[in-house]
Task: structure prediction
Amino acid sequence: MEKKLKISFNAPITLSLVTLCFIATLIGVITGGAGTRLLFMTYHSSLLNPLTYIRFITHIFGHSGWSHFIGNASYLLLLGPLLEEKHGSKEMLEVIGATALVVGIGNYIFFSKYALCGASGVVFAFILLASFTSFTEGEIPLTFILVTIIYIGQQVYEGIAFQDNISHMAHIAGGFVGAGTGYMLNKKSSF
Result:
């Protein structure tokens, strides 16, 4: 007797994040970027405006266009389910929220001339978090060291050497959030 294949909703937080990013990007495209600027982009706006605080989180949903969305969604869908299975949905939601806040507030304070949108910080958090999968107490995985050097080193170099529309700060901050939470989550699970 043959079993029927069925589609499983295997990573609810990751799939929800990618769906929200898709919807926000679609809104941005349909509105010519006005929807993104209003709701899905963080920038230096008045602290009296309630949307300023909302955008500290929602900026991760908006993307500058389809290629930006597809690049981030690919990494999220590749890494998210593995991390969500290992650490749990609640923990992944906390990593995403912490990354959004750190990047949003960091951009507001240190890069007040620049607007920021996209889930790249979350992608970098996932990359560094994933490199901690074989962590044991008292050891630092070589994969973590190499990923940190390659990914964070590249962002530091490109941030200094190039003037582009990429927020290298978001990538670096996301990487630090991923590394920190990776260390904490694996330390907690090793006891």
Notes: The mean pLDDT is 87. The chain has eight helices and no strands. Residues 39 and 55 are 6 Å apart (CA to CA). The chain has one domain: 12-189.
